[in-house]
Specification:
mainly beta, 2 helices
């Protein structure tokens, strides 16, 4: 979440507003002007992540397509040391901010989309939670 214009980020970049950071850039420019509130809906069902910005679907991607560390499905590089598709399909929600630029959130809601109990606590070492396609 950021103002693309303020950071001079081109639309569609994997670091643009509403991108799945470093992995998938938005396909539609649904940004509101700087200073106006944007509304996001992020849905993760299994390995498929969908991001809606201001009521428009901007990203839909299947994380299981990321099978190699540091490489996107199209062969371009990313900064992640593990294959994204090998990471657990559960975890924590975090909101972060860079460069101490003021940021505000309001109306944050989280809805569990199933009744499955978490497999991990978040304390396990990374090598104990990485999977291969055969173990999912």
């Amino acid at each position: 979440m950021l103002d693309n214009a303020d950071y001079q980020i081109p639309f569609g970049a994997t670091s643009a507003n509403a991108a799945l950071y470093g992995l998938a850039g938005p396909k539609v420019d649904a940004n509101k002007p700087i200073g106006e509130w944007n509304t996001y809906r992020i849905t993760a069902i299994g390995s498929v992540v969908t991001i809606e910005l201001n009521g428009k679907e901007v990203v839909r991607t299947d994380l299981s397509q990321w099978t190699k560390p540091g490489v996107n499905p199209n062969g371009t590089k990313n900064k992640f040391p593990h294959a994204i598709g090998a990471l657990p399909q559960e975890g924590f929600v975090g909101l972060q901010n860079y460069n101490a630029t003021p940021v505000w959130f309001r109306g944050v809601r989280i809805k569990v989309l199933g009744d499955r109990k978490p497999k991990y606590t978040g304390r396990e070492p990374i090598n104990q939670v990485l999977t291969t396609p055969e173990t999912k």
